[in-house]
Amino acid sequence: MPDTMTAIEITAPGGPDVLKPTQRPVPRPGHGQVLLKIAYAGVNRPDALQRAGNYAPPPTASDLPGLEASGTVVACGPGVSDLSVGDQVCALLPGGGYAEYAVTPAAHCLPIPHGLDLKQAACLPETYFTVWSNVFTRGGLQAGERFLVHGGSSGIGTTAIQLARHFGARVFATAGSADKCAACEALGAERAINYRDEDFVTVLRTEGGANLILDMVGGAYIPRNLKALADDGRLVQIAFLQSPMVELNFAQLMTRRLTMTGSTLRPQSDLAKARIANDLRTHVWPLLAAGTIGPVMDSEFPLEQAAQAHARMESSGHIGKIVLKVA
């Protein structure tokens, strides 16, 4: 085991160019943790928020970005019994994924689904943990319900479309181009709405309103989302690409019996994340192994080009997931 490793650090809050290669000590696993030699790391919006200075890591987490990865277990801390050195896994990380090695709770690791390679597996944890916990656990999506996901061509969106369709929902999505809308419909969306040309509120109201909306835009979308909901509908907020501040008439929550909720994944307890991992192992990993659903891949960058990967993500030109090749 080397003493040092190559990692990508945030040298100062700012744009993609503040991501720079550095040398760091290889971390050591604590109780219940494993050390992974990383093959690929997923690139996600929270990484960009952290880079910009708007999403501080928890006090016990690495200051390095990177919330998901795939790789090989190379060391196990005390109390780890379900994993062994040499196991290949994908894992939800508390941080530190933009590096050659990272530690994470063993309970947040999942096996590589049959038929998927390490590159594909690196795209699973952050996205599938987020979608499962917010769409199905918190949002309570049921078969036959109308489900709208904003940002349908993103990693979250492509995952949500596939899972919601598989479990029997009628799926609608918004996206910003004809190509992105076509990608959403190819994945199972009944109707993809180009938000540059159409009003998603009008489309959903024509269909009877959405029973559930998954939103990461916020801002002006929040009152429009409530208009797009059916009576007794639910809005789940997972990010604010626009703004968390908006003027809103809350009387409609009472008169139409609407529910507004939301969550972020990273601050949740290790136990809460372990429970999501168990749900995924039971309900979703067999679907991945069968090829029923799968990650949508956009592009790959070497670890040293993390800045270019962030620029690609923030251009909003991508469809699906972006990864960093580490080893």
TrEMBL record:
Span of domain Enoyl reductase (ER): 14-324
Annotated keywords: NADP, Oxidoreductase
InterPro entries: ADH-like_C (IPR013149), ADH-like_N (IPR013154), ER (IPR020843), GroES-like_sf (IPR011032), NAD(P)-bd_dom_sf (IPR036291), Quinone_OxRdtase_PIG3 (IPR014189)
Pfam families: ADH_N, ADH_zinc_N
Domain of life the protein comes from: Bacteria
UniProt name for this protein: NAD(P)H-quinone oxidoreductase
Protein source organism: Mesobacterium hydrothermale
